[in-house]
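Predicting holo structure, uridine-diphosphate-N-acetylglucosamine bound.
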Amino acid sequence: MSKYVLVTGGAGYIGSHTVVALVENGYTPIILDDFRNANRVVLDGLTKILGFLPEIIEVDVCDDKALRAIFQKYSFEGIIHFAAYKAVGESVQNPLKYYQNNLSGLINILNKMLEFGVKNLVFSSSCTVYGEPKELKEVSEDSPKNLPSSPYGYTKWIGEQIMEDTFLAHPELCLINLRYFNPVGAHKSSFIGEFPLGKPSNLLPFVTQTAIGKQDFLTVFGNDYPTRDGTCIRDYIHVMDLAEAHVKALAFLEDHKKGCLEAVNIGTGKGTSVLEIISCFEEVSKCKLNWSFGPKREGDVVEIFANCDKASNLLGWKSKLSINDAVIDAWKWELFLSEK
Ligand code: UD1
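Done. Tokens:
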């Protein structure tokens, strides 16, 4: 019997890679995506990788009636809820767009789960809930949450609170908040990857777009941070490792007969600076990158990386791919796009 999993935002960057991992692990993903932030090239890519195209339902996750019809049609083993806006700068310009979409989408999903007796939900959260870590830069799930620096960050913070309060009222639910660190890279086939909308704000797409000539130069935001080389440090996690973590999270929820609520960091446990990313890129691509230092970006966290013990103990998940793998795959993906 098919194990149906609803993947909201399944045509997006992390969603599409997770769809691949789900199929490879025997699940039948049903993609819900209205393509407002996804590119239809992904359909071609999924077909090439999987040999078929999973079912895609083009609706807005906030559409109550349409979502009810989907829950009436399928009996879902679980739900992975990606569909949300994620541009930090845009969220500062247009906060209501972010609160409206990101929060009503999650509420709509939880309401339908209660209405139709679906128990298992994986929610895309973010290390943004830790804000700027005060002392230890390696954060575990018990580290204090700090206030985020953008409306986008608050939607994740409040999203986790919605999960907690819903669990208190409905302890039969099995809920998990996956706190992603910095997702990077692409599927090794180069058939799917990230499509930044407009000018990328994330580092690695900006690096590859600069090398290919879509951007003139990269600005490194700040050079006097209190880190080993003066630039900010992040935990960059390969998107295929991240995709696998969703499959493990779902399996954990399925095995959990009683209700549960967990938050789990998904990172590599290693911090990499901006300059280290640049030299890694130059080494693997053999390209000289046009970059220079510029002013600090407001709201940037200085240094953060994951403690991944809980992911390993609870989910049996560990990242396997290195930052080199991620940079190679991101570069191959950029080259693939430039040939299209
Ligand atoms: C950003 C978001 C975070 C979100 C994450 C998703 C902010 C403040 N935070 O995280 O909420 O969950 O994306 O992936 O935007 N950098 C440059 N030059 C650039 C771009 C980036 O030097 O052109 C530096 C940044 O200063 C930072 C590092 O690269 O130190 C990583 O930046 P980015 O990819 O934007 O990720 P985060 O800031 O960690």
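The pocket of uridine-diphosphate-N-acetylglucosamine is lined by residues 88, 126, 128, 152-153, 182-183, 201-203, 206, 218-221, 232, 234, 274, 297, 299-300 (CB under 6 Å).
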